Amino acid sequence: MDALKLPPAQRLRIRENQVFLILTIVVGVLAGLSAVLFTVGIELTTRYLFGLAPSHARLFIVPAGVSVLTGILLSKVFPDVRGSGVPQTEAAYQLSNGVMKAHVPFGKFVTGILCIGSGHSMGREGPSVQIGAGLASVIGQWLHLPPRRVRDLVPVGAAGALAAAFNTPVAAVLFALEEIIGDMNAPLLGSTVVASVAAVVVERAILGNEPLFRVPTYQLVHPGELAAYAALGVIGGGVSIVFSKALLGLRRLVLAAPPRTRLLQPPVGGVIIGMLLLYSPAVMGVGYEYVDQALNGGLVLRMFVMLCVLKIAATVVSYASGNAGGIFAPSLYIGAMAGGALGVVVHTYAPFPTAAPGAYALVGMGTLFAGIIRAPMTSVFMICEITQDYQILVPLMLANMLSFTISRRFQPVPVYHALLRQDNVHLPAASTDDNDTMVARDVMRPSVDTSNATLSIASVLESVEAAHAGSRLIVDDHGLLVGYVTHEQLVDALARGLGTAAVSTIANDDVPHVHGDHPLDVVLARLSAARGAVPVLSRNNVRHVEGIVTLETITKRFAAAP
Amino acid sequence: MATSHDPSIGGRIERKVAGTWGIFASWWTPFERISRRPGETECLTSLCSWCTNKMGWALLRMQETRSPAVVQYHRELLQIAVLIALAIMAFWGTRAVHAYARRTSVSDAEQWYRRGGDALVAADTDRAVDAFRRAVAKNRGERKYALALAVALERHNDGDTAQRVLLTLRESSPEDAGVNLTLARLDAHEGHIAEAVRYYRNALYAPAAAADVTMRRTTRLELARFLLAHDDRSRALAELLAAANDSPNDAPSARDLGDLFMQAGDDGRALAQFTIALRLAPDDHDAHRGAGLAAFHLGRYREARRHLLAAGTLENDAQQLLETATYIVTSNPLAPRLAAAERRRRVLAALDAARSHVARCPATVDLAAVQQDLDAAIADLGRRRTSARDALDATMDLVGLAEGAARDCGTGSAADRALALIAPTDSTP
After folding, report:
1. What is the ipTM of this complex?
2. How much is the pTM?
3. Do B171 and A289 touch (CB under 8 A)?
């Protein structure tokens, strides 16, 4: 097809789609590079702040001291970049048409590196998501794209950044759909996939294809282990609730403090973190090396329990005090420790053969992720991708489901949404907009006034006027549609002396109509063209009338909706 | 050529391009006149004129149709080009930063590795494990760090974790000789014989081992020792035979091999190896000792005595063997080419020794009949002045019976041990 022969609007739409595709790739690449640079920046910052083997003095002074700087940055220069970044990205997508200010990705990058690199117990993936989404939004605004397209770029950038941060292309796509967009059937699936792939390609070109954690191949050793994994799901749900409640509770207290204390909050958090690091440096930063140890069975029960508790405390303090960082990595860390602890107990006391504690640590990671982040599909795929181990899929899904269910029961609002509510931002829940789901079948009236084609024009006119209708559907002896007539046509025919003629002689063949599954916006558009009443025809037989839609039927339907 | 007054970037670029092309076109025309050649130049100049006309026409048309959509189109192209250029620069920049971070990480890993090694030497396994873990975390691609960690874990009595570390390594490189060898040692320590043997074999047949003869030999000997420790002599022997093919030509290697052959029960090959060792180091006392033992087990008593005498100081068992061999060599009644009187004398001495041995037996052991027979034989031999060979041989049968009966009555003298070996068969050296 020659594009030049298409109508201008269609030509414009094709070109816009092509531009968007190119942008998707470019955004994916840039988001991926930003995530890689962010990760490398954190590593270098940690190295240079703490040295090879930090002394006790450094363990305390660095987080406390750097937090003074980050406190100034977060309160005076970049006030929008506190926290994880994921809820802020969701808010930008859902509420602001994807518009994010240019300083947001930059500020997040700088403060995230400083906060996490100086030892705060926070994750790097949440900030990566916000940086990637922010870059995408800024690019879209710079290109003066339509608002819809700018909004669409946000989950694209988020997916690219997360894919590169975790080296998990599939999980990143699922996360963008599940968490940012909130709809697994989103039409942006293709774009997020493209961005995710582009990001992972550049990330692997730089960092290689090593999995995030190198673990032995774990699998279900005995069917009895399913009970143990179910118990892990329950425990994981409980720990998720404890973490979420603690985080939200402490943050509520901090937010209730006078505004003049905002400058002091990060440094106070830094001092507390410094004290925690003096006791256990293992809770510093992202902590993936300790997760790796847990997955390879390198910790004892006491260490598992201690690190689980300390990491919860450290993350809650770091986050609640207003530092820039996420909770992805801490969720994985806490889950690994909780799972590992249970694994040691099961491995020691179970009356049947069991896998090593590392297997339980692996499942525990996913369990806590599902319970805290409340993204079960993402959790399953993420764990499989970051370990490149699919043998543990069944126990993982079982434990995830239980944890998710328990967490949702006792913490109905997901932690990200709850954090936003504390900032007086209310995100819409999924599927609250009936307009998106209502179709013609929902608003039609099944009983339809029709006239037989053999009736005279005069009798049909009389019937139309009695019903105060503007038109009438004409059907044959089998009740199948043959056409429609308007009131004006009937009056005109009568005036011409055709009152006794069959109404089929003046009926219009081309009947404006809708089908039962047409969304409401289509129904409303055709309603205006059909003079206030549009028939709903069956797709199986377009002459079979299923019902009729009028403004009155639509109004009645909405009046009846809860 | 009309020019646009569009102040945007796209408009300025267009004016630049149009101007440049105009300059080129004006220059080309006199040039082509100067360099004209008949025929060829005509086509060339026609082609260039055509291109110039078309290009100019296109530019003119662009400028004349300066609609907002076109402006936007050009701007978008430029912006996308800028973004692509930015992405390319960002890629190279990120790569450079990562390369720097990587160098730092690799250097840190090596420092932790050295610290771990120092801690291992100082027997501080806790610190060693921690240091090697950090080395692995800093540079996962370097396998020696993980291997060192496994060794440290094993010494820290955490064999399970050590094994998991090694199994994880092995998943990515199943033919790594070092990994397989360490796994073998772990399983050997835990007493998992079948697994240990499997990993030893994997280490032996790894590509690295195929190229490194010394490593292959060392591994094979280690496997042989392991098999001998678990009483699997036949498999140990097979490994020793293969190790002998790779054996370097030096006395200590030959001696070690000899010891192992002897443990495996192949005294002949053991003696051969000791002989090689003595050929290279004639004064090697351990080789003499080993040769002496091997020769003794083979019944070559004169040779055994020679080697044991050359071995210098001997421990108790070897000393007893020397005494036994000496008795056999000097007092064997069944030795060939003995004078009758000497043979008779030796037989009498043997009878006497057997009777003494039987007499030392406790009363619970009923050897009265044997004692009587011995007394009768001694008396009979004492009466006769000469003795036929047959009669002496029969007497030695009695001696053999007596020594055999008295075996459980405690260690006898050198004579008793020798007589137990040589009677009733003649084991002439």
Report:
1. 0.77
2. 0.71
3. no
